[in-house]
Amino acid sequence: MSLIFPADEASVVSGQGRLHALIIGVGEYDHLGLGVPKPSRLLSGLKPLTVTEPAARRLAAWLENKYTNPNCPLGSIELLLAPAGDYTRKDGSKVAVEKADMANIEAATNRWFRRCDSSKDNIVFFYFVGHGISTVKGSYLLPADFGNPDIADDWRNCIDGSGLRSGMFKCNAQHQYYFFDACRDAPVDALTKRNPHGASLIGGADLSDTVELSADYSAASDGRQAFGRDGGETFFCEALIMCLDGMGASRLAGGRNWRVDAATLSRGLVSVIQAIAARENLPLSCECRMQKPEPLHFPPNGRVMVKVGCKSEDMNNEADITLIQDTGIKMSPPGDPRPWIQPAVAGNVDIRVKFSNFPTEVINELIDPPVYDLEFPL
């Protein structure tokens, strides 16, 4: 078992509203890529991934350390990784994390389902990061042992993400969140297969089974790829944590407190991914359908992605940008990439832009999540 929170199954609270998370990060594949002892007959050209395992670890650590919901506290986090290894909990203790292969994923899903099913007030939290593909029949997620040539069914070790979400309609937990951090492009190798399929992991839901919220957020639009930064995590994971930290939040009545809910998270992810795409000059996309405003997390502050640029190349080359808040000063001298994209705390902000050959520009604004886009001259 790879239960990183709490320390053991006996300590998991059941029968009361809790968030139960299953996080799967796959970067190392047994049968995909060059030099593997037993290459897959299907999709063998897919390469190992370096950004997925760090993404899964970072999100697990965020949940363990930052998730806040007084009405539904953290209940459990189960983590599977490939390559497997140790995870250091916030108290300094270490836990051995199981490999994210199909057998371990199936077993972990069964345990996770039982925890989620223990109360209608629970929150379901599922995150997968690794290889994903689309076919004429749907989108699929690939565990570490996908494509084992010793198995006659090439699709045996494959997960149907939509099927998992549909199967969870029979779960008592009424608020459910699914994050699919994977590509959704359609390799020719997969499109030519007669019967692509994957395991839903959970079956038996009736047409009459319903939940109040089943929200899915995908790191790529249909037919598109997802990306990450070498030496870091995926851009979708970066955007998700930014949104949970406040960029996907809205002010509560009175304007002093903040809440991330399913609807504000959808809006925030789309906007933040667009800002990251501009920063990285990459064709990033995500698919986040508008959802009900069911609360997920209460961050201490709202946060905003501030984007500052100029309408002409000459002005961009000269722009000396200063962002001033009570929390501190951030600066971007001439020669830095433009537009300048920087996180800030929601609230009052002064933005000053000096030029050598153009008038100085000064803006004072009250900024709110998710993105504040400023282009000079106004």
TrEMBL record:
<dbReference type="InterPro" id="IPR029030">
    <property type="entry name" value="Caspase-like_dom_sf"/>
</dbReference>
<protein>
    <submittedName>
        <fullName>Caspase family protein</fullName>
    </submittedName>
</protein>
<feature type="domain" description="Peptidase C14 caspase">
    <location>
        <begin position="20"/>
        <end position="246"/>
    </location>
</feature>
<dbReference type="Pfam" id="PF00656">
    <property type="entry name" value="Peptidase_C14"/>
</dbReference>
<dbReference type="InterPro" id="IPR011600">
    <property type="entry name" value="Pept_C14_caspase"/>
</dbReference>
